[in-house]
Amino acid sequence: MKILLTCLRNVRSLGHPHDEGDSESIHMSGQSRFHRMFAFVLLVCLILVQPATATELYYTFHDGERGGLARLVIDSETGEVGSHDVLFASADCQHPRKLAITDCGRYVIMASEETGRHNLFITNLQNDPPTTETLRFLTEPDEIRTFGTKAIIGGSSGNVITVDLEEPTILARWNARSDLSPSGHKTEDLVVLPCGERAIMSFQKDNRSGRHRGSRMVIVTLPELETVVDLPLPRNRPELHYPDVPREQGPNPEVIHLSPQTNTFFVSLDLYGGAALADLDAVLEGRWSNLRYVTTAVDESWGDAFPDRFVHFSRDGREFVLALNSGEAGGGVVIDLEKREVIARAEMRHGLETPIYFDRLGVVVATPAGKMKRRGPEGLIRTFHPGRNLHLLDVSQLASKGEISVEKHEMEHLLFRTAPVESGTGSLVLLMMGTDVPDQIGVFDLEKREFRTVIAAYGEIARTAGSRRTSR
Known about the structure:
It is a single chain. This protein has five helices and 34 strands. It is mainly β. It has a domain at 1-49.
């Protein structure tokens, strides 16, 4: 601001004529020069004062009394905090969890994992200040994906809805138990196809009685939610099933990645400890072609890896998926989507959170949130053991040599989640961390291995939206 005021004072002395003549033409000419000079210097000043770009991070939180949504604006070059505001907070939002921001950056939708009250909160970022409206999803909401200014939301008991975020209003309802045959259980992952007119959903487990079936892929139209594909996955490894546990009777597909460039469909297989790969065009038509299962365990065993965190990235013209395992042995593998095989393996701890790829550095970053799954005598057992080591995977030699290496950088606090600054094109990463829970946000420089900024969050962080680059 001091720079701006100095510029304005200087332009006044530069722009006014200094002669004593009282000619009208001289007066008008001087006035014109002043206006042009004023506009030019004002523009220069604004460029100097404002950062070139900024990253906006949205996160859901709970402060002990209220749940809400906050926005953090970070200078993409310096890592300095531009602003940090609560956009919405209410005692009626007790279990804030997942959220999504539209590609146009106009709306954020967040879910509170509860029933019996309004549990969807839609914030309009165009308004100044932003305003939030609510909707009621009849069941507990889970995954959220946006398309245009609309969203598709999966929930418990097989419920799915589409929502118009501009109104806001519910456009269509769909239920796996009534709209599929045999009836379905619950959606796991949702992916909107590039055309924006269809979505593909994974159904992981059968229900507790085994009546409502999982282990299938379903495609619906958007926003109408009409079923066009229902494609079961082969349950071809019965030795990995639990005979007396109806929920664990198949491969249990979970996280989906699509590669139009290589015509590859990828979905993780939780109970089998691997992934399924097939021809994408065939899946979209409702059939399997060139389907194969691969293990994601570092020792190439089956049934104990439980892969559940992934990053899909391109390097040197090739596409890869890095799969991180929550099984007791941990580890990670890289799958080449064109070859449809594992090309690299690395020893790592279990329970690394969703990783982020930094293209310029050739590095993948992951935090040890600590989820661990293992087989018990009566089913799967889940525990959490968060850690302090930031994991940096060097993938710069992946395409040329098929090699990856792992570096661990120990921090003072427990690390829970990450988010990129500048969409992963720079060297700054946001770390959600804390002594016991994620209640701090650090801006960490991956090249210098040091923090630029650390601030307190407005409560315990539940989830973060993908950060968004904005022109400043």
